[in-house]
Amino acid sequence: MAFSKLLTVLSIVVAASAASMVLHERHTAVPSGFVRRGAAPANEMITLRVGLKSNNGAGLEAKLRSVSSPGSFDFRQWLSMDDVKTFTQPSADTVSAFDTFASANGLVPTVISPNRDWVSITLPVSKANKLFAAQFDVFTHPSLKDSIARTLSVSLPSELVGHVDVIHPTTAFVAPKTRLLSSERQINVRGPAASCNSSDPLGVVTPTCLQELYGIPTTPATQSPNTLLVTGYVDQWAQSADLAQFLKLVRSDIPPSTTFTLLTTDNGTNPQSPDDAGVEANLDIQYTVGIATGVPVEFLSNDFPSALLDTTTFLDGIDNPPTVMTTSYAYTESFFGLSLATKICNGYMALGARGISVVFASGDGGVRTNHDSSDLCANNTFMPVFPAACPWVTAIGSTEGFAPEKATNFTGGGFSNFFPTPYYQTAAVDGFLDTIPGDFAGIFNKAGRGYPDASLQGLGFEMVSGGEVTNLGGGTSASAPTFASIIALINDRLLAENKPVLGFLNPFLYSKASSAFTDVTPGRNSGQVCPPSSSAFDAAVGWDPLTGFGTPIFPDLLAAALA
Ligand SMILES: *[C@@H]1O[C@H](CO)[C@@H](O)[C@H](O)[C@H]1NC(C)=O
Ligand SMILES: *[C@@H]1O[C@H](CO)[C@@H](O)[C@H](O)[C@H]1NC(C)=O
Ligand SMILES: *[C@@H]1O[C@H](CO)[C@@H](O)[C@H](O)[C@H]1NC(C)=O
Ligand SMILES: *[C@@H]1O[C@H](CO)[C@@H](O)[C@H](O)[C@H]1NC(C)=O
């Protein structure tokens, strides 16, 4: 009795002793845009999610490499929910290390993910500060409606090092903003099914225009297990009435009652009234339901950025997940912090292994994150965005004009500072780096994951929001759902021939499918606000970090997928 009490007392002393703390993550300054408002109240309760280390992340990565590489013996033999779990769940040692720490400190962890790799703990701020050598302060940001509690630095007691990947929220400063690219022209009604008008290089983009430009079929899909998931974050709500009006206007060949299924996590909602219309959500829904003809579309509504985690853990727990997921949000990679970005990115690796094609918009600030003011134009240090820069997602950039297409100035592209160039794209990236002049002014990580992987139109999308028809839909937010729809339509053809779906796309895109794209060679991604003379990348022959391999040619992509 006395002995075990002594042990407990000792372990508290060790856990609380500063000498045993190991710095885990730290910002040297408050990330730009955030304002510190003072210390978080000491006795306020805070819920922290603790990401526990998977027992075999390297094994999952190797397995994914095999199942996604054309020519391998198990090509496209995607893993089941339980197969993935055998790799991602924490080891017994890890669980025991965390449970010992928790009980020594009077904490009760709750498992919050199907793979058991996330637990949550609720504790007073003062205790969180002490246990993790943190200083939680309250921060505000113009794009966040609520203030957030964050710390510039977080440490782990040494006995948790190697067992805990990340504690969230601690050092992640994320304030995603939905991007609406402003356009001078607003239209009232653009007639049904308008083609691309190549004598009007910045003309309106409609589903018919995209179908003609990329050879996308209009015939309905037939395979019902093939669903396309659209994520909706940041209070963005997709409106059924707007969708019906849109379909009547531009897809009169399909029933205007064609709609989407609502899914929610975190008590997400999807209120329906013109005042609730979210242009981003409407754009994403209209250019999935309107392009992926006949493919069942789901809309998942929840809050960002914990929503990125929740989306993954939600999908980890369902037997028949969607085959494609598209997300039109991006934020400065460095502000996520390495540990959270890595954990989220590994979550996409697990989804890819299950056969889900995870598609992200590449961001709308060119080489400078989601940049929309001129203050950074003179700064030659490029700022990549996440999740697009995660090697396990397929990142989609934007083009404009029709004959030929060129990279938009806002198309997000560059190289990750967190993730190294993945095996599947080394040749493509090396080829691009050879085109950069010796006196290139931009500063970036040449050894990083290059993005985007592909691109398509991203300016002047005709859409309906709050009952109004506009051509304001734009950004890589328009390109990503359209690309995801193309993948969903190809999956439909594969399933109809009893073949597995495309799943994690990139190894296929960078090998067999690389010629199924129209190379886009003009353009420079200096951003919408910075002068074209500011440092940025120039599009080039072959893969480049503005448009990836270029814009898809549906029949060629389908042929490569079926081969
Ligand atoms: C195409 O664009 C040109 C230039 O803006 C315009 O004059 C013409 O009417 C357009 N054609 C159609 C079919 O809309
Ligand atoms: C969802 O709502 C229920 C009931 O109001 C509440 O108990 C729960 O904490 C909420 N969950 C989240 C994640 O906000
Ligand atoms: C340029 O941007 C980088 C990346 O955000 C930042 O670290 C650096 O301090 C900036 N330099 C100047 C001169 O503002
Ligand atoms: C970026 O491109 C848009 C559309 O082509 C154009 O209107 C805008 O002037 C460009 N921005 C700059 C700073 O050149």
From TrEMBL:
Localization: Secreted, Extracellular space
List of residues binding Ca(2+): 519-520, 542, 544
InterPro entries (alphabetical): Peptidase_S8/S53_dom_sf, S53_propep, Sedolisin_dom, Tripeptidyl-peptidase_I
Cofactors that this protein relies on: Ca(2+)
GO CC annotations, alphabetized: extracellular region
Keywords associated with the record: Calcium, Hydrolase, Metal-binding, Protease, Serine protease, Signal, Zymogen
Entry's cofactor comment: Binds 1 Ca(2+) ion per subunit.
PANTHER family noted in UniProt: PROTEASE S8 TRIPEPTIDYL PEPTIDASE I CLN2 (PTHR14218), TRIPEPTIDYL-PEPTIDASE 1 (PTHR14218:SF15)
Protein name: Subtilisin-like protein
Organism from which the protein derives: Mycena albidolilacea
